[in-house]
Design brief:
Elements (H helix, E strand, L loop, with lengths): L1 E7 L4 E4 L19 H11 L7 E5 L4 E4 L3 E9 L3 E2 L2 E2 L6 E3 L4 E3 L5 E9 L3 E2 L24 E4 L24 E6 L8 H9 L2 E7 L3 E4 L13 E2 L4 E4 L5 E4 L6 E2 L3 E5 L1 H8 L6 E6 L4
Length: 286
């Protein structure tokens, strides 16, 4: 078993997999990777199954020292990764030797980058998931002095130059796919026009639980009887604030649910940072 020494934790780095399912009836959030596309690409490059755990890194990356040889991949946001101070590329199979140090630098594009490792990270599995969440798992985020475990293999992976095509355009676009929410039709025509035709900026209040938008939507709707919400549910608060619930969101809520993001919409939203503009594109359920 190999170990990674955390030399610097970065801004907000957590172990995640595809999520914790079938426990929402007990009030347990789904959690899981914010950008499922990038996480799956990490595992695909490594020949892992898609549900293997990865390290989700937010905006400012950590500095990690590998104590045994392995193979890694880096997908999602562009945070200027380096191995032993030599720049490496996203979306490639990268060989790691014993004592190698992986670091990240300037954020160039996107918000969240994913570090995949051969065989996945070894962590505690609770309620069917390795995803870290405060109050459920022993760890919430990386911290200096912590060590991460991973399987070591005697085989060496080679870049096969295979046919997997990775599309990174979603990191640049501002269009967010969304369906009409349960309370969408309670909005006035003017409100509906604004929510589907005007851009909104990402507010400073954004995290794995929810992303708030800056611009207010004039609102006279009353709160609803508490009902179910999901990752991607867009709530309208009494003040007119739009809140986009994300992977660590609660399971119920009392604000009108005006939109519901598609999985592609969640993935695109997960890569936005404060000040980025988004434009909701209404789509139909097929």
């Amino acid at each position: 078993m190999g170990k990674i020494s955390i030399l610097h934790p970065g801004l907000y780095s957590t172990i995640q997999d595809l999520g914790r399912f079938n426990f929402r009836k007990f009030g347990v959030p789904q959690s899981g990777v914010m950008d499922s596309y990038a996480a799956k690409m990490c595992n695909l490059i490594l020949g892992n199954s898609e549900e293997k755990s990865v390290l989700e890194i937010t905006q400012l990356g950590p500095k990690l020292k590998f104590l045994e040889a392995t193979s890694i991949s880096i997908c999602g946001a562009h945070l200027s990764p380096k191995i032993n101070n030599y720049a490496v590329q996203n979306n490639k199979l990268l060989q790691i030797n014993k004592e190698d140090v992986l670091s990240f630098g300037k954020r160039e594009l996107g918000c969240r980058v994913y570090l995949g490792i051969e065989g996945g990270f070894i962590s505690e599995k609770i309620m069917g998931s390795f995803s870290w969440y405060k109050g459920i798992t022993n760890h919430e985020t990386l911290h200096k002095g912590l060590t991460l475990d991973y399987n070591t293999s005697k085989k060496q992976l080679f870049n096969r130059n295979a046919s997997a095509k990775i599309d990174s355009e979603y990191l640049k676009i501002k269009t967010i796919e969304a369906y009409k929410g349960p309370e969408y039709n309670l909005l006035s025509s003017a409100q509906q026009k604004k929510i589907s035709c005007e851009s909104f900026q990402i507010d400073k209040n954004n995290n794995r639980m929810a992303i708030q938008l800056q611009e207010l939507l004039k609102n006279s709707l009353k709160p609803i009887i508490t009902g179910p919400v999901l990752p991607g549910t867009v709530q309208l608060t009494p003040s007119g604030k739009l809140i986009v619930l994300m992977r660590d969101c609660q399971t119920t809520g009392g604000y009108p649910r005006v939109l519901q993001l598609s999985e592609n919409g969640i993935i695109t939203m997960a890569q936005k940072v404060m000040g980025d503009e988004v434009l909701f594109e209404l789509i139909e359920i097929k």
